Amino acid sequence: MGVAGATSGDSASNGGQAAAANNPYLAHLQPAASSGFGGVYGKSHPFHGLIPGKTTVEQQLAIEAGGINGFTGQPYSDKYREILKKRQELPVQKQRGNFLKLVHENQFVVLVGETGSGKTTQIPQFLLFDELPQLKGKMIACTQPRRVAAMSVAQRVADELDVKLSEEVGYSIRFEDCTSKSTVLKYMTDGMLLREAMTDPTLERYSAIILDEAHERTLSTDILMGLIKEVAAKRPDLKVIVMSATLDAEKFQRYFNDAPLLTVPGRTFPVEVFYTPEPERDYVEAAIKTALQIHMSEPEGDVLLFLTGEEEIEDACRKIRAQGDRLIQQGACGPLKVIPLYSTLPPHMQQRIFEQAPAPRTEGGPPGRKIVVSTNIAETSLTIDGIVYVIDPGFAKQNVYNPRVRVESLLVSPISKAAAQQRAGRAGRTRPGKCFRLYTEKAFVKELQEQTYPEILRCNLSVVVLQLKKIGIDDLVHFDFMDPPAPETLMRALELLNYLGALDDEGELTEFGAKMSEFPLDPQLAKMLMDSPKFKCSQEILSVAAMLSVPNVFMRPREAQRQADAAKANFAHIDGDHLTLLNVYHAYRAQNCSSDWCWDNFLNHRSLKAADNVREQLRRIMERTGIELTSTPFDSPSYYTNIRKALVSGFFMQVAHVERNGHYLTVKDNQVVLLHPSTVLDRKPEWVLYNEFVLTSKNYIRTITEVRAEWLLDIAPQYYDLSTFPSCEAKRVLERILTQRKFRDEHDSDKKKDKREKKEKKRRRTDKSVISSETSSKMVRLNMSKV
Ligand SMILES: Nc1ncnc2c1ncn2[C@@H]1O[C@H](COP(=O)(O)OP(=O)(O)OP(=O)(O)O)[C@@H](O)[C@H]1O
Ligand SMILES: [Mg+2]
């Protein structure tokens, strides 16, 4: 379906007009073309009379209450009318007039409204009918910090506008673009918008940008804010709305050139908050207990429980199911459906949270209930229909970066007050709710900080620095960050990019770096891909990069750990985990991507399917950027060696050396690390390259492959310049290798010299010709340089 009826219509809308000629329902589409001037709708079009940037509340309400959908030309469905009634009750509706007035008069607007008041779903629609971006061939973007929110909100708004998802309303997340030519309202992760800015630095394709959940201060949101501020100065036509439920509004207003503030009072339904009288010793146990208590004693309504990470969540789900089953057998309560949610779960599994609660087992029996156990990805934006109870233990995993030792990790830390408020806001969306905080009220007031600490102050910035350089922002020190990152963190990012060849010694983006930024990957992965043709293995490295970009493919259910380990052992490669992943991918393809085969081998089919998809997308980027796709013949002895060398060319900064005492130390930073128990390596190679640093109670390195010191010295001489190394065993080993090499080279060249001289003498004897000493020494020099 196109933007039918607009005079500026594309081919799709022209198609719509042609169809209109024979269809009385579409009659309203026709006059548009005859209206004579661009950007205005014909008389019988539902949008007739709207002037971009000047619409009124009455006009907008009339369109919504009309009979025909202005986007599709179809009569509105019953479902549309049903949803419309609920939408009309939302608190933001009362502010529609004020909102329109503010956007008409200002370029920036800051909007703060309580959770559930209708910001994410309604404001973009108010703006859509006001901006009419379709007339200018543009779109409205609404950013979300998380993929799951972008996807689910887009679906909801598509329903609210009575259009098909991906047509007028779509979403875009990394490796998945669910939009089309007719998309006018696009929900997207903030990271995706930032990526788009690299090819469209003034964000030309958007007439308005809504930065939602700005309080989360994700890295991408912070960078976008700075960028959009610059773009807006050049594009007075661009409207920018910054929204959140829990925002330090003044700070945002000041940052956006003293933007006006619109506050939306009132929540749709009340949420009652309970605290524990005493601090809980074990928050996971307490959370499980609370969930089951709710199930036994509270009236109907689903539960959302916040925990910190995959393992904890899967474990809690298992316990809730087991204990729940016992209660159900005793007849104490109704059936339970327990659903995990975390970011590494594939999108389709994430969608399970929207499933209905199970029905009671007998009519009139105790109600069935859904319990969603989630990380903080369900904290903002999401409306999960049916959630009435929220359990908030007060913790989340947060990214922490230590630039001194270049280690980025997720650590369990207390959440902020703003986050607690967001969590409570997930209850009471579709009816009154309750929030159980598993900490004391005193702790809430005294111990939780007001706002979440911005991510830019606690993460590795290399991807972002590369993106900013690509966009053309060279002076990072004077870039207008809301909170500037620590200089050391910036330096580390510049240093990494310099070692990878993305920035030159002056900090300028190189041609190589510009290409690197095209890949939606960490710079190390991109470098590995781009260098792989040198090692004749880009096809294989493409598969490895794809496998590293998806959630873990190995399943290890607690009740079948031994079988799962045995299944994994079938794929194990003697040199380590990267090649094991490659074996898995090859086997998966050889089995025609069979899901049964995956199941039998304890492999996650969805992850492998995702890897296949990611590989295809990366392959296209390789083709576009002219990177050769090649392979070493499988029977060649260098097949695997070449792949390992290509790994080194990207990850030479992530290498550890085993010390005499059996500990591994990371090179240069000298951090003590252990090989993660998931590795297939059953020995301790002297040098290992790792994909990831995992900080729990101990430091682990995960996804590991054995490499050779010689490769490090040859492939990354700039990094393995031993004069920059701290004194350590690794340095001494490398020095020894270099000394041996020097000795060997000298020895070799001496031998060669002897040989040459002998040959020369022989020739002279036979030729009896005379060669000047000068020529002879030149020959030696030339030959030497070839050696
Ligand atoms: N998928 C859905 N199913 C049912 N109702 C929904 C759905 N999505 C939204 N709603 C309704 O619309 C209301 C507004 O949702 P919206 O996401 O716009 O709120 P919000 O102000 O952005 O909240 P938050 O600050 O939590 O992001 C919800 O409270 C809920 O009543
Ligand atoms: Mg929202």
Average predicted local confidence, pLDDT: 89
Number of separate helices: 29
Q: What's the alpha carbon Rg, rounded to whole Å?
A: 31 Å
Considering DSSP H and I runs of 4 or more, what fraction of the residues is helical?
40-55%
The count of DSSP E runs of length 2 or more, i.e. the number of strands, is 21
Q: So what's the overall shape?
A: globular
**What gap, in angstroms, lies between the N and C termini?**
67 Å
Class derived from helix and strand content: alpha/beta
Uncertain residue ranges:
1-39, 769-787
Strand content bin = 5-15%
Bound molecules: adenosine-5'-triphosphate, magnesium ion
Strand order of the largest sheet: 4-3-5-2-6-7-1-8
Report on the biggest sheet. Answer: 8 strands, mixed
Keywords: ATP-binding, Helicase, Hydrolase, Nucleotide-binding
EC number: 3.6.4.13
Enzyme class: hydrolase
Protein name: DEAH-box ATP-dependent RNA helicase prp43
Short description:
By secondary structure, the chain is an alpha/beta fold. It is 42% helix and 15% strand.
